[in-house]
Amino acid sequence: MARHKGHITIHDIAQSLQVSASTVSRALKNDKRISEATRKKVKQFAAENGYRLNVVASNLRKQRTETIGVIVPRIDRHFLATIISSIELHAHNHGYSVVITQSRESSDDEEKAVLTMFNQRVDGLLISTSLETKGEHNFDLFIKNNIPLVFFDRVPDDINLNRVVTNDRASSYKVTSRLLQNGHKKIYFVNGPTSILVFRNRLKGFKEALNDRGLEWNEQMYTECDLTLYSGRKIAEDILNRGDMPDAVYCSNDTTALCFLQVAQERGMSVPEDFSLHGFSDEPFSAVLTPKLSTVKQPGEEMGQIAVERLLELIDKKDLPPKTFVIPSVIKSRESDL
Amino acid sequence: MARHKGHITIHDIAQSLQVSASTVSRALKNDKRISEATRKKVKQFAAENGYRLNVVASNLRKQRTETIGVIVPRIDRHFLATIISSIELHAHNHGYSVVITQSRESSDDEEKAVLTMFNQRVDGLLISTSLETKGEHNFDLFIKNNIPLVFFDRVPDDINLNRVVTNDRASSYKVTSRLLQNGHKKIYFVNGPTSILVFRNRLKGFKEALNDRGLEWNEQMYTECDLTLYSGRKIAEDILNRGDMPDAVYCSNDTTALCFLQVAQERGMSVPEDFSLHGFSDEPFSAVLTPKLSTVKQPGEEMGQIAVERLLELIDKKDLPPKTFVIPSVIKSRESDL
DNA sequence: TTGTAAGCGTTATCAC
DNA sequence: GTGATAACGCTTACAA
């Protein structure tokens, strides 16, 4: 706000026009109680003299900021960028501004971000938690003060919260079933860290699909990967070096699937001839790999929209019971898992 | 700020502790003029009672918001997401918050965003312009009021502005020279719209490289693409259907290069055997295509950091002369252009 | 239809 | 070392 100094205020307009500041304030808001003539006069003067509402002052007085805070692990991950883009679009359509902070997967940074957002008096908060976050402790400040909070994608496992998620378990079940239907018996599942709910759910879906076909869960055919390329490659190398190759590899994440594809190709194997490969998340690269990677597309735009709409609803009507929205993902069957 | 109501203020603390509000305010800021004892007492009480500074009130009083505005065409484009991520990181490291708006390539929306940002009294603005934007007219409000403004990536062609860009012309020159050195004579250049400075610069670099080797610029070997997949495919089909195939295709954008690769493969051609292919922008998919796409990696993180640092410098010292920062890109020579 | 006055929660100035 | 007071620019009862 530095150097906005000296900017014209409603008092300046009032003085010039020989009316009161409240009249100016009302006229600018098109308040019917002010005569058509005065309204016109005020608005014209304001326009001609470059008057611009000071939202900071207005916010202080109104005790609301029409701003929502967004805290995500990182902005530059495709799926999150998609959600953020959608959040920004729908928030603005409803007249809300958006303040963004990254937790960078750190629970401490996430907590600090929450405090900052509170200090800024955002009207509500949208959060996808960091990998480190345990429970909803970090968000107590908002919860205790009953300020609207909606979790999306990576959410705490607590139905007393407002959450927007996708149907990971069902999608994972479908992927696994499809692999089984295609005759694969030895399916290796490379999951993400099960400290995160989405990965626990994907694991559930996987196990259920096996169960429903009378196959038993086998510890040897399962690993967890921390989602980095480094860890993905190590796991891929490890598995593809084994004597007993899997028929299919199902990764809870396209980046890990990519590692398998690359390692396989380096070893002269081909996908899906030597083994089927299935990913999860539909990264931008997945559709253009050779072979095109089969994967699961998560509904980012829709999740962002629903999250915003729910948050605004909570800001509006104070005490709605918590609700979890489940937006279905879609299986993208391409070439890697024939 | 709704429902932050009833939250404790410095006056509540003052009353409880039988001191004045100014003492509380000072104590909380660790003002040396307040005795150690009082400071401790105040801070402890504040902590125990969950006091949280109301930044809105503080901002109004201080006439600055410690917030910077960011306006970009879209958040969900990889390169921009990278820059935004960097902006957020460095802004927060300096104690600034970040408000984001997308212009969605619309000049009108961009202008509206500028007005909103002004109303919010952001201390400065970071902008990458929309495809439609002509000149710097949209930003007059900030320019006239002398509020710091830094353009990045897509910037107006006006050296009186603060800008952070990459060396497009030199990179384009290098790419073209490399292609020529490798013996290619018929190089087809598919550029982006030259209404945008970066594309004008890439075209300049291309022409200069031809010139320096005594080759002449040939209208037939040039098209502009609007960066969409649809337009990219059409151009690729058109060119690969011609009688006289190019030796090499150089695209000002990886997405367009991808279209060429796909169309070529559909027609049974191979890259780089049938023609060399070079992109620009280093999308996440580029390194994992078959063949791996040679391209130009733009320094997004660095650009974001420099943009923030410059903006904060301008916020700090009012009247620095405008400056353009040129951060070099790096050529990623991979497999598609042997 | 318009005006008066109080107040949102801070911080800065001046005084003691 | 601390306090009183005004002001930041706006909105909103309440009055007129």
Low-confidence stretches of chain A: none
Total beta strands of chain A: 12
Oligomer: homodimer
Order of helices and strands of chain A: HHHHEHEHEHEEHEHEHEHEEHEE
How many domains of chain A? The number is 3
What helical percentage do the residues of chain A reach? 40-55%
Organism (chains A, B): Halosquirtibacter laminarini
Protein name (chains A, B): LacI family transcriptional regulator
Write the SSE topology.
Two copies of one chain form a homodimer.
Chain A: H1 10-17, H2 21-28, H3 36-48, H4 55-62, E1 67-72, H5 78-93, E2 97-102, H6 107-119, E3 124-127, H7 140-144, E4 149-152, E5 162-166, H8 168-181, E6 187-191, H9 197-212, E7 222-224, H10 229-241, E8 248-251, H11 254-266, E9 276-278, E10 295-297, H12 300-316, E11 324-327, E12 330-332
Parallel strand pairs in A: 1-2, 1-3, 3-4, 4-5, 5-11, 6-7, 6-8, 8-9
Antiparallel strand pairs in A: 10-12
Helix pairs in contact in A: 1-2, 2-3, 5-12, 8-9, 10-11
Chain A binds a DNA duplex (16 and 16 nucleotides) through helix 2 and helix 4.
